[in-house]
Amino acid sequence: MSGLEYPRTLADFDRQLATEEQCRAFLASLRWPGGFRCPRCSSREAWTTERNLMHCRQCDSQTSVTAGTMFHRTRKPLRTWFQVMWWVSVQKNGASAVGLQRILGLGGYQTAWSWLHKLRRAMVRPGREPLSGEVEVDETYVGGVRDGGGRRHLGHKALVAIAAEVRGSATGRIRLRSIPNATGSVLQSFVRDTVAPGSVLRTDGWASYLGLEEQGYRHRRLVQESSRDASKQLPRVHRVASLLKRWLLGTHQGRVERAHLPYYLDEFTFRFNRRASRSRGLLFLRLAQQAVALDPVSYRHLVGGSSTSSRGHLS
Prior knowledge:
Helix 3 (78-90) packs across helix 10 (280-293) and helix 4 crosses helix 5 (109-121). This protein starts with 9 loop residues before the first helix and ends in an 11-residue tail after the last helix. A hairpin with a 5-residue loop joins strand 2 and strand 3. The protein folds into 2 domains: 1-34 and 66-121 and 277-315, no CATH class; 134-245, Nucleotidyltransferase, domain 5 (2-Layer Sandwich), CATH 3.30.420. Strands 6-5-4-7-8 form a 5-stranded mixed β-sheet, with helices on both faces. It has a 3-stranded antiparallel β-sheet with strand order 1-2-3, with no helix packed on it. Mean pLDDT is 86; it is low at 145-153 and 305-311. By secondary structure, it is α/β, with parallel strands linked by helices. Helix content is 39%, strand content 14%.
């Protein structure tokens, strides 16, 4: 979609997406880059009704440009949605619901909260390429530290698996996942889902990583005598863990619901993997493209959270 016209600056945004008509046209270009195609019969012949519906000439069905997307049945103007998406895209450290409500004057905290969570679901691109080359893998806790926690004892905290590509002295792309425990089945499933076979995996001496070579990986097992050794031998995942905790505390004041942690991890991954991008407009475009591809998500589903996570805030 390199030929698609999209706003590259705030001035472009205010000019190209100033009206609802412009916003609908932009959304249509994202949904049907090759021109309109009827969802029911695949016909390309259609006309626009007074209610801005696409009326298929062949089967007489009608569809809106927002139907079946993240914007399905929205009562808010598309212009407001795009303002939110632009603001979220240009914020280097992300956005909180309180900040979004204040900046854009949304009706209430609930609206800002639900919109941000919908956008977080749009930050994961289906079919994204797995990590490759040399990859560091480890786990970290997020949430407060309480007495009684050990090396892999979960307690009142949440456990997050981290994979980070080694790119010389720098860090390439990352993947994060909220995990229930650090058993072999859980950690090795995370590796299989996020890292391409044939890659070189660098892990600590935790026994749960044993067996990765039989699954098509080259495994470099690093045994540390202290936590200081771990940060030196696996510097990239430790750096990512530190940045993640700082982001959760700084942007969200640590008030992250345990059930919704996976979506905050998706947002952090989206931002980290695009940290070197010089085009905020391109980030807005990518988010808009993925929002169009996202199935509708109801507020009831949002507040229901993930069935695999426990309730409550991280503490």
